[in-house]
Write a structure and sequence with these properties.
Number of strands: 10
Number of helices: 8
CATH class: Alpha Beta
Oligomer: single chain
CATH architecture: 3-Layer(aba) Sandwich
Strand order of the largest sheet: 6-7-8-3-9-10
Radius of gyration: 19 Å
Largest sheet: 6 strands, mixed
Structural class: alpha/beta
Shape: globular
Strand content: 25-35%
Helix content: 25-40%
Number of domains: 1
Low-confidence stretches: 232-240
CATH superfamily: P-loop containing nucleotide triphosphate hydrolases
Distance between the termini: 31 Å
Length: 265
């Protein structure tokens, strides 16, 4: 598999008070291969979200390199970096940040129009296909107040995929959802991954991480361990699972939980 993203020797500190530098990332190396479905876990303050923001260009490391598709993005001008994120990356977060004055359909197509790489008709068609795929077609004309949390997260996923990004980043994408909605979103992400989209998630939820292919564990600003769980999303292929599939998913979750316990999680 080709390497989509290669981060080397990332360091990041934040200033806390007068002259007090707090290291958050410490010489972090990580690679993401094309088609992978990976998650990053660790205790609060371990650097998970900071790592995500630095490798996707939403923040800049103090030192180190981030090669995205063999291009060093850490030093790109902000305008060029914004264009790269818009066209080649997708983002889903715990808080979806949809625009209240736009319909659900308009929230989805907005990034497609901003990219200006396809006609508006093509963007609209892509949005319709994504909404059908995610089961929210009937919400197209609704305000964002007329949808559940799980439905809004599906809207966020459609928006993230509108420009057909090569990689999808998620920071606690199920954190605000109940267990049923969370399971539905993970099943959807597994399907998206099987269709070819590379996915990296930051999560504190063992059940969510157990649905991914590879788990990285962070502690004190470093990636200190890695666990490979097998085929991406293998245990989340359907929401209404058979007893055998449910048992396999539970065993996978327990296996990951035992490993995380060994790491001090």
């Amino acid at each position: 598999m080709n390497t989509v993203l290669d981060a080397q020797k990332l360091n990041k500190s934040y200033t806390l008070g007068k002259g007090n530098e707090q290291p958050v990332l410490r010489d972090v190396d990580m690679q993401i291969k094309e088609g992978e479905f990976i998650s990053v876990m660790g205790p609060s303050g371990s650097g998970k979200s900071t790592l995500l923001y630095n490798i996707c260009g939403m923040d800049r490391p103090d030192s180190g390199t981030v090669l995205f598709q063999n291009r060093d993005i850490a030093g790109l001008p902000e305008r060029e970096l914004s264009r790269l994120r818009l066209n080649e990356m997708g983002f889903i977060f715990q808080q979806i940040h949809l625009l209240k004055n736009l319909s659900i359909f308009d929230n989805i197509i907005l990034s497609g129009y901003q990219a200006r790489t396809r006609s508006r008709m093509e963007v609209n068609r892509r949005a319709e296909e994504l909404m059908e795929r995610t089961g929210i077609t009937e919400l197209a004309g609704n305000d964002i107040t007329q949808a559940s949390g799980g439905q809004l997260q599906r809207v966020g996923i459609c928006r993230a995929l509108i420009n057909e990004p090569g990689i999808l980043f998620g920071d606690e994408p199920t954190g605000a959802l109940n267990s049923s909605a969370s399971e539905e979103i993970m099943a959807l992400l597994a399907e998206i991954n099987r269709a070819g989209t590379t996915i990296m998630l930051v999560t504190h939820d063992i059940k969510v991480a157990s649905r991914t292919e590879r788990v990285l564990f962070m502690m004190d600003g470093r990636i200190v361990a890695e666990k490979r769980l097998g085929a991406a999303g293998a245990a989340a292929e359907q929401v209404t699972a058979t007893a055998a599939t449910a048992a396999a998913a539970k065993a996978r979750e327990e296996h990951l939980a035992a490993w995380l316990l060994e790491q001090g999680f």
